[in-house]
Amino acid sequence: MLTVGSRGDVEPVLALGSDLRSRGHDVVIATHERFRTAIEDRGVGFRILPGDPTAALETTDAHRLIRTGPSLVRVIRRFARLLLPWFDELTVAAPAAVDDAELILYSPLASVGWHLGEAMGVPSALLSLQPFQPTGEWSAVTMGGKDLGPPLNLLTHLVSQQLTWQPLRRKVQSWRQDDLGLGPLPFLGPYSVLDHERHPQLLGVSPAVVPPPPDWPPHVHVTGYWFLDPPSDWVPPDEVAAFLAEGPEPPLFVGFGSMTGVEDVAEQICRTALSLGYRIVTTAGATPNNSVLPVESIPHSWLFPRMAGVVHHGGAGTTAAVLRAGVPSLVIPMFADQPFWARRVTFLGAGTTIPFREVDHESVGMALGNLEAYRGRAGEVASIIAGEDGNRTAADIIERSWLTGFGS
């Protein structure tokens, strides 16, 4: 299993890997060094891939990227600027990580896994947390998934593919031919080849949140979320348990995951929430006081059900955890897939959203003042998700496909 990125990218893959290991498979996850302990503590093998996503997000280019908003061209162009230097390191490290693999499962940013599978003659499949398969039902994820009508929706996906592929095209073609001994891909990229091969895609999202559109091929599987729960003996830090027990009402959570350079916005949101009488648990670096408890990392599956609501950035993993918890949310999306998930939360009626650039005291105050109105629908969505088992569904598909041949 090859995956790169932040905690929200790696934990779902570890959840699925843990399920596969419990079925007797020899599972190895190749990712960044910072996740070694979490992976090995689950009894899953670890191999290292280059890069430190946290350090990368501290750069000036990353701060510009975070504040881009739902712009198809700007997001991908700025993202490519961060990705290109790292791609060469990945192509050096990844072959050693999979040298004895019989099956390669890879995330979108680790798509070298598909090329390596082809070179090794072993099957591979894409593990995705975002719906990248083109459709006429909604526009590209990086445009927020807004509906522009089927022809334009489909066009945005095709444009997104080319904006992603063309900056990497020369590097990928050279690596395939010079290092892997493979033939060149079409000028427009691997997409037609993947469709022709019926290359499996497993989308770790609830079908209640992203219903599979009718124009998706059958090799795209929407499995349900891949949740990683804390060990059964996990207990919260004493200060967290005490803070939750102090007030007559549950506190509000404010956090933006791995997003950096947004402390000013977090502080503003916390000030507004305090003015409305909320107590706050936050990972966003707000100033602590009797009503504000900063924390570093608390399992969302434990924390969120104990909150009055959640203010978050709309990352795929955080959104999944909030919807599972059944609490209302205020989404402040910044870039990449975050506007898409904000739109899905709003469509489901499980919360509301404010674009990052429109955050101010008035807009946040109005949204938080109305947050309770979304609790009923949030609970209904959570009940649907509780009836799903994405880990099991995905593992079943992998075993069935592995035994009978991927794409069959």
Helix and strand topology:
Layout: H1 7-22, E1 28-31, H2 36-41, E2 45-48, H3 53-56, H4 60-66, H5 72-97, E3 104-106, H6 112-120, E4 124-128, H7 150-179, H8 191-197, E5 201-203, E6 220-222, H9 238-246, E7 252-254, H10 263-275, E8 280-282, E9 292-294, H11 300-303, E10 309-312, H12 316-325, E11 329-331, H13 338-348, E12 351-353, H14 361-369, H15 375-386, H16 390-404
Parallel strand pairs: 1-2, 3-4, 4-5, 5-6, 7-8, 7-10, 8-9, 10-11, 11-12
> Do you know the CATH architecture of the largest domain?
3-Layer(aba) Sandwich
- CATH level 3 topology of the largest domain: Rossmann fold
Silhouette:
globular
Number of helices: 16
Structural class: alpha/beta
Average of pLDDT: 90
